[in-house]
Amino acid sequence: MHLDVESPVLALEPGQLLVLDDAAGTRIVSRRGTVWVTEEGLADDRIVSAGGSLVVARPGRTLVQAMDHACIALQ
After folding, report:
1. How far apart are CA 5 and CA 38, in angstroms?
2. Rounded to whole angstroms, how far apart are CA atoms 73 and 53?
3. Residue 23 in contact with residue 72, Cβ under 8 Å?
4. Burial of 38 by CB count in 10 Å (0-12 exposed, 13-18 middle, 19+ buried)?
5. Is the pTM of this model over 0.90?
6. 10-residue mean pLDDT series, the chain (75 residues)
7. Domains and CATH numbers, the chain
8. How far, rounded to the nearest angstrom, does the alpha carbon of residue 72 sit from its chain's CA centroid?
9. DSSP per-residue string spanning 6-58
């Protein structure tokens, strides 16, 4: 099955991990909760709190982990 949506919204449980491959240019928006984001090839990890966002800067693997109950949008 292939699901193609324009701007998916995902609910993440505390500790749940989302793996994004080759997502350069994708904006990760935290609508609720806090997520930890690390990108392959970058030394610094980032924290995105509710209302915040970041744009994935590099190709490769990006990991998004919920630090608490979180809801994120991918744009």
Report:
1. 24
2. 9
3. no
4. middle
5. no
6. 66 96 95 97 95 96 97 94
7. 12-74 (2.60.120.10)
8. 7
9. SS-EEEE-TT-EEEEES-TTPEEEEEES-EEEEETT-S--EEE-TT-EEE--S
